[in-house]
Structures are given as C-alpha cells and as structure tokens.
Write the structure tokens for this entry.
Amino acid sequence: MSAPLVSSALADGVRQLLRPQLQRAAEAARPLVRGRVTSIVGLSVEVSGLEAAVGETVVLGEGRTAVPAEVVAAEAGRLRCLPLGHLTGLGTGAPAVATRRAPTVPVGAALLGRVVDALGNPLDGGGPLHAAPRTPLHAAPPPALSRQRVDQPLGLGVRALDTLVPAGRGQRFGIFAGSGVGKSSLLSMIARGTSADVSVLALVGERGREVREFLEDDLGPEGLARSVVVVSTSDEAPVVRLRAAFTATAIAESFRDAGADCVLMMDSLSRTAMAQREVGLSVGEPPATRGYPPSVFALLPRLLERAGPGVVGSITGIYTVLVDGDDHNEPIADAARSILDGHVVLDRRLATAGHFPTIDVLESVSRVAGRVTTPEQRAQATTLRRVLAAHRDAKELIDVGAYQPGANPEVDAAVAGLPAINEFLRQDIHDITPAPEAWARLAQLVAGLGGAR
C-alpha cells in the first residue's frame, strides 16, 4: 500500500477515535444560554428566553432546587415544560438551561435481572449502568411491510391462555379487568412461564407498597433473572409515569433488534393514558371523551405499534387495561381493543368464587389463533368453548332444576364434565404448565366430554 493511502487510512482512524471527544468539546464550547421561569401553574412551567425542541430536557432552577423538565409545547419565545420531579422550592425568575439533548435510556444484556426507574436509573442497589449502551427514548416502529408475520405460537405457561386464547410471537393483546381481579398475578405467571427469551415489565403508576411484593412474591428470583423491570410509582410526576411506558418499550426494542423474542408486559396501559391526560390538560388541551384530551388517543397507537414482530426478533406485547367501573366499553378500553390483536377478559365473579386465574374464556379472543394452532387443536378448543357456552345459556334452568337431562347433548356434557373443566381452567399462581402439556390435557378433557363432539 502506498504511503499516501496509509496516511489517509491512519487519519480516518484517528478521526473515528477522537470523534466522541470532539463532540463533547464542541458541546462544552457552545455558549450557555439561560432562560427564565415566568409562570408555574399546576404541573406546567412556562419558560421564556430559551430555545429547545419538543421532547428535549430543560433544567429548571439551580443548586439543590434544580429539577429536570421535558419540553411538551413551544410557542414564539415561550416553552411549556412539565417537570420530571417535584417543584418544591422553584419560583418565577429561576434560571432555565436547555441541555440540547433528547432523552435516552440504557439498553442491552446488562439490564437483565435489574430494576430501574423511568429514567433508566437503577433502583435495586446493583450498581450503576454507565457502561450500558444507550438508545433514544422515542423511535419509529418497524415498517409495516418489513415486519415478520405472526405465525409461531408462544407458550405463556397458563393453560387457559395457551389453549383457548393462544398467543403468537409478536402478537399484542390486552388483559381487561377492574381493580383487584388478578391482573398482576396473571402477569407474574406469564413472566415465569413464558417461552420467550426475555421479559420486560413496566409497572406504571403502581402503588409503592406493592412493588417489592410483586418482585419478591409474584415474580420471584427465577422470573427476575431473565427480566428487566421498569418502575414508576403513583406518587411520581405524570411525565415520569408516562416515560416509564416508553422506557420499557425502548428496552424491549433493543432485545428485539438483537434477534431475541421478547415479552413486554405493561401494568397498566390505563395509567399510562391517565398520565397523558394530566400532561395534555396541563398544557391547555381541551378535554374530550370523559375528560381525555385528543392527545391520549393519538398516544395509544404510537406506543402500541412499537411492539410486535420486527425485521428480526419480536416483541409480544401484553398490556393490562384497568376498565373504569368494570365497564369494558369505556374510552381507553374501547380504543385499546381496536388496536390490539386480541383481548383477555378477567371476571370479578370468578374472583369472588375463588376461581383463579379469573379468565372468562368465552369473552376472550385471540385474533391470531388460526395462524398459530393446528386444525386439530382448534377443533378441541372449539368443542370446549361450545360446551361452556351451552352451560352458560342453560345455567338458570339448571340452577332452579328446570332443565331436563337429554334435551341438549352439549348441556348434558357440560353438567357431567364441569368439575373436570374447572380443574383444567384453574391454576395455582406457582403452577407453570408448558404449552404441549396443556394441549395434551385439553385433548384428554375433550375426549371425556362424550356427546359434545
């Protein structure tokens, strides 16, 4: 190789090595422009004399009262910011400095087994994550025509789900229920029993008391070892709660783009929407359906579409939806159901009867079931559904003794086989059943139903 070519290659290598230092030096040499806080109303802080883009971080105040804030709206000469912490001690006239940086989060294998907050900071005392690579918080979903098809089953370890509401790798489905019906317990069963490579859990707006209980009792060391947990408790600022959902999604995307099959579990999508409602109303958006501003309904597809199959790897998204007053047609539940690829309904009556998991299999639907199951498996699942539907329709007659045996073979099969059916559908929180075993038990159950076939 000639001397000029060697010199050119050497110069290129030196430039590559020095590029990070040069970028930091350029940032340090940039003039520091300060703005001022002009008003604080509710959760919203108005800053003047500063230029920044929506989504960037601005530091409000200085010293011990300094608090980072996210720019959520911009007008001529004014920025509207929402704090990522508490505003105690901050007043009008306080300085404001733009960081000129969009938010990023740590990603990669170093996060496995770790518990982090919405900003990516460790909460488990396991040491800093400075060496972990970082990725932008906000990203575009994979192009629609570049995505893989959802055609491979994903075992979840829950018999009722794997056989009657089967999931596919890259599917997105919601768990719809009121409060206290067993959503978190079902998520913990899936986290321990899933056949996916990695689990990412987002606890958005969770009660602080329950976080440690969920990690130690429900998830356990086995589930945590191959999981990343992102926590934002209910007392944190709405922007922080909102960011937790996007942080967990960005972490899941990093595993998917590395070729892994990842399960992203978010508890709950409703609290994410509520956080966006607080953000929208704070910056002057008009309330629309049940007080939710339009930005909430724009947020849901922007967040949910980031899950799913990619060019390589997949994210199976599982989102709990806290239905308001057990009304499954309330705005957030209705909007989420229209975007997701299936829904699992939990029934409060089953919970009060001690039937766990409280899955109402007749009201639950997987939109990819036909592509991830065999014809024989679909026939077995349909038979059990038909028997359960016949028993539901005739339940009042059976309870008052008005049903005449022999009038309907499917009802007869349901009455005779109900104890075995309930035994199949019930499952202890620590009992994990692999999908092949669940299908074998369903085949045995259906074979014993006799006249229903």
